[in-house]
Design goal:
Elements: H1 2-7, E1 16-18, H2 25-34, E2 38-40, H3 42-61, H4 73-78, H5 82-97, H6 100-116, E3 122-127, H7 133-147, E4 153-159, E5 184-190, H8 202-211, E6 216-220, E7 237-242, H9 256-260, E8 263-266, H10 274-288, E9 301-303, H11 312-329, H12 357-394, H13 399-415, H14 418-435, E10 438-443, E11 446-451, E12 453-455, E13 461-463, H15 473-482, E14 509-510, H16 515-526, E15 532-537, H17 540-543, H18 552-555, H19 568-574, E16 585-590, H20 595-618, H21 624-637, E17 640-642, H22 646-653, H23 660-676, E18 682-683, E19 685-688, H24 690-694, H25 699-719, H26 724-727, E20 731-737, H27 746-760, H28 766-769, E21 773-777, H29 790-803, E22 808-810, H30 823-839, H31 853-875, H32 878-884, H33 887-905, H34 924-928, H35 937-953, H36 955-970, H37 975-982, H38 988-999
Parallel strand pairs: 1-2, 3-6, 3-7, 4-5, 4-6, 7-8, 8-9, 14-15, 15-16, 16-17, 17-18, 19-20, 20-21, 21-22
Antiparallel strand pairs: 10-11, 12-13
Helix pairs in contact: 5-6, 5-8, 6-8, 7-11, 12-13, 12-15, 12-27, 12-31, 14-15, 16-19, 20-21, 20-37, 25-31, 27-31, 29-30, 31-32, 36-37, 36-38
The structure holds cobalamin.
């Protein structure tokens, strides 16, 4: 980045960074020496705090960038050189802020620029803040690029300067996807002291881009006032962007722009009241121009949903805009769109009638508890009556009293539900079953015998499951409804009666360099285990759906902190030597944005492996029928998980690459494919709280957001016509485990809510009611200071997770704040799990949390808070509605800040980090000599070379395959089914690019 800025004459731009502990002192020094302004270390963070670091950056960056050699830029400007355009706009801004004298000296430069101006149309886009102007502008640019060949467009975007601080955001470009094209130039300007929604330099800035040879100029205003019409003075055609939320119709009288704009857009048209708003605005437009002889429908008022890919409303606005420009500027541009397209919401994820799903979820859980309490009270009464009867009988009491007590008892009994009666009737049997030496369970007609006791060295028999000694029916009923034994509804203590034997729940995350290297690591990690549980980390090039390349933003990341995978060849190498269809092999893949593509590569790998095995067995090539059979069997057998959870990406991790709706559609396509092909042992999604927690959310928010995301998938899949029991077993969960008290009951609360809602709201069967989750100890609780202490934190977290009956566990290595774990640190991390499962005595018991007052109390407290959060999300329009206004992200950030502040002030003691500091901290030398896991240059080169040879080998087939994929997407076909074919001949980057064209890229809300 530094070199590129220098190469492009922009070395005045200072680069700052921070990298936790991953950038070691000698690397920081090297970077500083090279010219990077500053890399902040965790120690800097501790010393200065966030505000201190921010202040330092702002101070160092506060210098004028304008240099006097501006006149030299004019020649370059005529060649359309970006740098010259930027510098001259800066000059224009500078001119209006310096004194008169200085400004006068710059006058000749601007005069010269003006003399070079070409007459090209200027379009002004204005509107209220939050109306979605930037998204709409981006979408118009995209259409301009596709529809108007060869023409170039410049966007000048004006942002308001804050009176108090003098600062401005200037962040519109973050939301723009279409501007990364040689035919587009974009520049943000602040309003500074203009006291209007435009910059005082705007006229000159327009002259600069006109002189640079652009064919169309778009000026987007800051959109402050209700409808400032200043824009009309500097443009040929203007557009006013609003939403339906303008209040009473009389408010429209106050919007000057309705009187002046050529086009009016009501964006976010999916919102309530848009149709009515449209009529009101049409009327206002008609009235303001006295167009009563015309129909309302003929007013140039358009509804759009700019956030929706290929929105027909935006197409119509684009056509109207082209027509207006042609009329006003005498151009003759053509477009394939028409003005008459009707705006409508396509790809509805949550249908209107399901929109209160989260409130219903809360009500279901509350309703369940209410009923349980009522039953417990009745049962207690029955128990008391039985006791009273016995006492009266013992005293040889009065017959009448006995008869009357009997009658009351029968009445009480009658009020008990059938379920309660069954529990009471079976209680003694249940206790009996658990008290013996062995326990026999039946799974799909197979009898499984579990030994119920382990002997301690002292000779005590430690039960696997300990049951309460309650006698009171009320207590029994209350316990069974709220807790029950592991493996029984509501599964509070666990979804299976017992932990799997011979398969520890450990699953360690790994990935580094080339597929070959990661494959070796997988073999090392699992060499002593009968069960091969592989967990794959991809490098960030793969996570963002790109191919390895020499591009400066890619090259350095190839194979770093994850494996580089971009072709089916890579995938085959990654899992070579593992039988992917073996019943005790299971593979998880941490991939989200490009998950459908990577999953298609994985499934093809599994299929090809089995074909190979079969061919070797038969000594010949398979017939088409045999091939189909092996393929079908593979899909039905293969075991594992793909993360693929796109909702939490927007909320926590950020690897979103496709528009959210398109990404959701592909998730649905995967699930549908799984149903069609009976993929039963593979989780189609891992609904993840881990990233939410690691981004800073507290455990309650982690749990609430994650479960809410889970219910959103359920609602979406149901709305696509899938049967709950066909897909619920393919859902899995993933949490982070920190040290906060709430983490003790994370699994308990999650399981109870999920089971209750699945059964009582969705009518799902037993298998679907079971929430299974993977858990990882908290990465954020690992600190770069006193790294040896990290294992102590991880041990406590691992113990909590195992006691809470997680279904699989990753224990972090102590050095993760500094590097991707080394073999030595991973061995210690594994030892943590093994010491707990093999040595820790209490862990021989599988329900150690049940029956503790504090655990019960915490379970109820956390559950209640989670339900309240569901209600808050519900009231913001459900998960997707809340995401639109950044509710989840905002809350996560607030909670992160709260923690960081407490850590900084020392109010939250963290041993070895902000208190009990190491008197002999490691020397710089020691830190510089740490073993670091890094990908080598050769590995990066190998990946690029292999990619190119794959692309070369398939060049005759890839184009057709990509075309077919796009067709499947456009025609509503199953994209995943098509991807299963595409990945055979196209690389990851080729595929994502093709899908962007038909599904839209992700646009970050700010
Ligand atoms: C939280 C976290 C995540 C979260 C991030 C959530 C989020 N939205 O922020 C999640 C779970 C999503 C995540 C994902 C991944 N992560 Co991560 N993650 C971490 C973790 C645990 C903590 C980082 C953190 O935020 N700490 C809290 C902040 C406040 O502190 P800090 O980073 O120490 O920064 C301080 C200073 O350095 C300074 N600072 C930092 N940056 C900046 C920037 C500026 C401008 C300034 C002024 C100051 C400054 O201020 C801070 C205050 O003291 C670290 C390990 C660790 N314990 O450090 C790994 C870590 C950073 N992740 C890592 C990796 C590999 C990944 C993944 C690529 C894994 C994968 N293959 O899937 C993905 C990438 C996802 C992506 N989007 O690209 C590696 C990076 C390794 C490397 N570079 O050598 C680390 C070090 C873990 C490891 N050893 O493997 N991760």
């Amino acid at each position: 980045m530094y070199d590129l800025l220098k190469e492009r004459g922009a070395s005045h731009i200072r680069i700052y960074g921070g990298g936790g502990g991953v950038i070691i002192p000698k690397e920081i020094k090297e970077l500083h020496d090279y010219g990077i302004a500053r890399i902040f270390s965790p120690e800097d963070g501790r010393q200065y705090g966030l505000q201190g670091m921010i202040d330092q950056m702002i101070k160092e960056c506060d210098f004028p960038t304008f240099t006097a050699e501006a006149s030299e830029q004019i020649e370059k400007l005529q060649d359309g050189e970006t740098n010259a355009i930027a510098k001259l706009i800066t000059l224009a801004e500078h001119q209006v802020t310096v004194g008169k004298e200085a400004a006068a000296s710059l006058e000749p430069v601007m005069e010269k620029v003006k003399s070079l101006e070409k007459q090209v149309p200027v379009v002004g886009i204005t509107g209220t803040g939050g109306a979605g102007k930037s998204s709409l502008t981006d979408e118009l640019i995209r259409r301009f690029i596709n529809e108007i060949p060869e023409k170039k467009v410049a966007i000048l975007s004006v942002d308001p300067t804050k009176q108090k601080t003098g600062g401005a955001l200037l962040g519109d470009r973050i939301r723009m996807n279409a501007i990364f094209n040689p035919r587009v130039y974009m520049r943000s300007l602040a309003t500074r002291n203009s006291r209007s929604e435009l910059s005082l330099a705007i006229q000159d800035a327009i002259s600069v881009v006109k002189a640079a040879g652009f064919d169309l100029i778009i000026v987007e205003t800051s959109g402050i006032g209700q409808g400032d019409a200043g824009i009309t003075e500097i443009c040929d055609a203007s557009m006013y962007v609003m939403t339906s939320e303008f209040g009473a119709p009389s408010q429209l009288e106050k919007i000057d722009m309705i009187d002046y704009a050529d086009l009016i857009v009501i964006n976010k048209f999916e919102r309530k009241g848009s149709e009515d708003a449209m009529r009101q605005v049409q009327k206002q437009y008609q009235r303001s121009r006295m167009l009563f002889e015309k129909e309302l429908e003929d007013m140039p008022v358009y509804g759009t949903i700019a956030s929706q890919f290929n929105d027909p409303g935006t197409n119509a606005v684009f056509a109207a805009l082209v027509e207006t420009i042609n009329e006003k500027a005498g151009t003759d541009w053509k477009t394939s769109f028409t003005k008459n397209a009707k705006v409508e919401k396509q790809n509805v994820i949550i249908p209107n009638e399901q929109r209160y799903y989260l409130r219903e979820v809360s009500e279901t859980v509350r309703g369940y508890h209410k009923k349980a309490e009522e039953q417990a009270d009745l049962a207690r009464k029955l128990f008391q009556l039985e006791g009273a009867l016995l006492a009266v009988k013992e005293q040889e009491g009065n017959e009448e009293v006995i008869a009357s007590l009997d009658a009351i008892k029968s009445a009480a009994e009658e009020k008990l539900s059938a379920e309660t009666k069954k529990i009471l009737a079976g209680w003694d049997d249940l206790k009996e079953k658990y008290s013996g030496e062995q326990f026999v369970t039946k799974i799909r007609d197979k009898e499984i015998v579990t030994v119920l006791k382990t002997k301690s060295l002292s000779g005590l028999s430690i039960p696997k499951v300990a049951l309460p000694k309650y006698k009171d029916y009320g207590e029994i009923i209350r316990w069974v409804y709220r807790e029950n034994v592991p493996g029984s509804f509501p599964y509070t203590a666990g979804v299976f009666p017992f932990k799997r034997e011979g398969e520890d729940p450990k699953r360690q995350f790994a990935g580094e360099g080339t597929p070959e290297r990661t494959n070796r690591r997988f073999h090392y990690l699992s060499k002593d285990d009968a069960a091969k549980r592989l967990s794959t980390a991809f490098d960030s090039v793969t996570l963002y759906g790109e191919d390895p390349d020499y591009r400066p933003d890619i090259y350095g990341k190839v194979g770093e902190s994850g494996v580089s995978i971009c072709t089916l060849d890579d995938m085959k190498k990654l899992y070579a030597g593992f039988d992917l269809c073996h019943p005790s092999t299971s593979v998880s893949m941490t991939i989200n944005g490009p998950a459908p593509i990577i999953l298609a590569m994985f499934m093809n790998t599994a299929i090809e492996q089995q074909i190979e095995v079969k061919e070797q067995e038969l000594g010949r090539v398979l017939t088409p029928e045999e091939f189909t059979e092996v393929r079908a069997k593979t899909l039905q057998t293969v075991r594992g998980t793909v993360q693929a959870d796109i909702l939490k990406e927007d909320q926590g991790q950020n690897t979103c690459i496709f528009s959210t709706e398109f990404a959701l559609r592909m998730m649905g396509d995967i699930q549908q494919y799984f149903i069609d092909h009976k993929v039963r042992n593979y989780y189609s999604v891992s609904i993840s709280g881990y990233h939410i927690a690691e981004a800073g959310a507290n455990p309650i928010s982690q749990l609430a957001f994650t479960l809410a995301n889970g219910f959103t998938y359920v609602e979406y899949y149901l709305s696509r016509g899938m049967n709950i029991n066909d897909f619920a077993p393919n859902l899995s969960f993933f949490f982070s485990n920190g040290l906060d008290p709430e983490y003790t009951v994370l699994g308990r609360v999650a399981r109870r809510i999920w089971a209750t809602v699945m059964r009582d709201k969705y009518g799902a069967n037993e298998r679907s009611q079971k929430l299974k989750y993977h858990i990882q100890t908290s990465g954020r609780s690992l600190h770069a200071q006193e790294i040896d202490f990290n294992d102590i934190r991880t041990t406590l977290q691992a113990l909590m997770a195992l006691q809470d009956n997680c279904n699989s566990l990753h224990t972090n290595a102590y050095d993760e704040a500094i590097t991707t774990p080394t073999e030595e640190s991973v061995r210690r991390a594994m030892a943590i799990q093994m010491i707990i499962t093999k040595e820790h005595g209490l862990s021989k018991n599988e329900n150690p949390l049940q029956g503790a007052f504090i655990v019960d109390e915490l379970t109820d407290l956390v559950e209640e808070q989670v339900l309240r959060e569901f209600e808050r999300i519900n009231d913001r329009g459900g998960v997707l509605g809340a995401m639109e206004t950044q509710y989840q992200r905002g809350k996560i950030q607030d909670e992160s800040m709260y923690y960081e502040m407490k850590k900084h002030t020392g109010e939250l003691p963290i041993i070895g980090v902000n208190t009990y500091l190491n008197p002999n901290p490691p020397s710089e030398d020691e830190m510089n000599n740490m073993e670091l896991a890094r990908a080598t240059k050769e590995e990066k080169e190998t990946q690029i070379h292999n990619l190119r040879s794959f692309q070369d080998r398939n060049k005759d087939k890839s184009e057709e395959a990509l075309k077919q994929l796009k067709e499947a997407a456009v025609s509503g076909g199953n994209i995943f089914a098509e991807l299963m074919e595409t990945v055979k001949v196209a690389s990851l980057g080729q595929i994502t690019r093709a899908l962007y064209e038909v599904g839209g890229q992700y646009r970050r809300n700010m």
